[in-house]
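*** Query protein ***
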Amino acid sequence: MKKYINLINKRFLLYAGILLLIFPSCSEDVLDETPLDFLAPENAYQTLPGIKQGITGLHFSVRQRWFYGTDQDAGAIIKGLGSDIAYHGEDPNSTRFLCNYVNYVTSENAYLRNFWTWNYELIQRANVLIEGINAADPLIWSSEAQKNAYLAEAMFFRAFAYRILVSTYGDVPLVTEVIKGVKTDFVRTPKAQVYKQMEDDLLFGTLNLPLPGKEEAPGRITQGAAGHMLSECYLAQGKFQLAADAATKVITGYGYGLMTTRFGDRQNVVFGKGDPYYDLFAFGNQTLGVNKEAIWVVQVEPPPTIGGGSVEGNRTFGPAYFRIGNTPDGKVAFRGQLYNGSYTGYSDTLGRPVSWVHPTNYAAYDIWKSDWKTDVRNAEYNIKRNFYYDNPASTFNKKKINLKVDYAAQYAAGTRDAMRDSTQYIYPYWMKFADPCHYFTDPARSGGGNDHKDRYAIRLAETILLRAEAYVGLNQPDLAAADINLIRSRANATPVLPANVNLDYILDERARELYGEEWRHITLRRMNKLYDRVKALNNNPKNPGLNIQPYHVLWPIPQSQIDLNIDADFPQNPGYPTN
């Protein structure tokens, strides 16, 4: 993917004229024009370089919107905010960041509207590219297999978008052709039909995408990624044997493997010795050839790469330690790094977090109790739990911060906010989202909350847990336990017994292994666990259970979509008011 990144600006020109699902046309005449001398869908996708631009555009759209953090609320929600594993730490009673389902999850919410519009924009772009590939002169292709590989990659992204839509909204319009004019009569397609289209798209991908290692550039989609998403698609429909079979093909058929020995650049292990799990998240290790666990890696390039970007990793997940104020003896608690002759207040080992995603007690403590000292995923270098004052002028310098003891007198006097200390300033910090001592920009703020590490969209550990889920559905707990124990063995955790395996246990293991990586809301909906687990396990101190109601399992259709659909009935999801 990186070799095509310089085409992104042209991609914007290409899509500037595309009529999206939510935008009406200004003139019928415009629709009849055939552009000949500027970049547009009708001529750009007639050449192989133009088609490659289209593929780059699909990747860019997904990276920018779901991984780079274009929308802070959306980025936090896909990382687990508002589920059983996380709440908003900076302000647990905010009107944003899904702190209260009743007040936030509405048909008028501009942040939630992005989940609808972005995905239908992606579907439109994929459909435009599919149409262009099919209409292109056959002579541009070296073989039918080359053409089908590009078709399959565009179809993968269409399935990717529908995966989000059907999970979030249920029945949604199924659009497989390019929208070329005003359309105001959409209908909600039964989700079984949407799943069938996803199956067809992904099955085509498992046959026609490149084999892993044969893709044109890092980050491009392969048969392994399509097979993983196909397994999840089957699971969502209760097709457990098909899900197990699809996952098995990914697990055994492409040369993937869990990383169980140290690999790559380990220079940035600053809080302990590290282990193979830690190495998975070290800068540059995600796309190394020796990393057999990576299935789909979203590419992030540091400057000066043209078209590169950054991810708000520590900004999203880490505690805002630098805001803690003074030590108990009145000195600045964090002196920070010396830069341009003054101390910044930020540590280059911790970056500049903002506490958007705060782990629940369930994620930070409860799931680790049985193997607290032995599970390497809970080691200090993987989850930093201990923080230390940093100011030689204080008698507390280098002492571990103990909020309850150190500030007990201030709490008792009412001069300090204990909740803010523990929800915003100091709490466990998953180091997979940091990049200690390795920031490329904004040195005055230790990176400003951003990093430039590639991100896993899919890795093999999740595929294995998908198969374990399928085995639970097939009432084969012994096989499910065997899969889970592949992962627990790598983590040096106690093997689980078949009798203890159920969906809740798999959710626990997914939280231990995939915290912040999986789209937790989709997982919980698939297992019919979203309402029960958010209500029981989300310990937001201002809104325990986040005021979630049973109807919130599905989100409301954006009111703007209903209002534009004047020529056909477009019912709202149950539980939400209709205008």
Remarks:
- The radius of gyration is 24 Å.
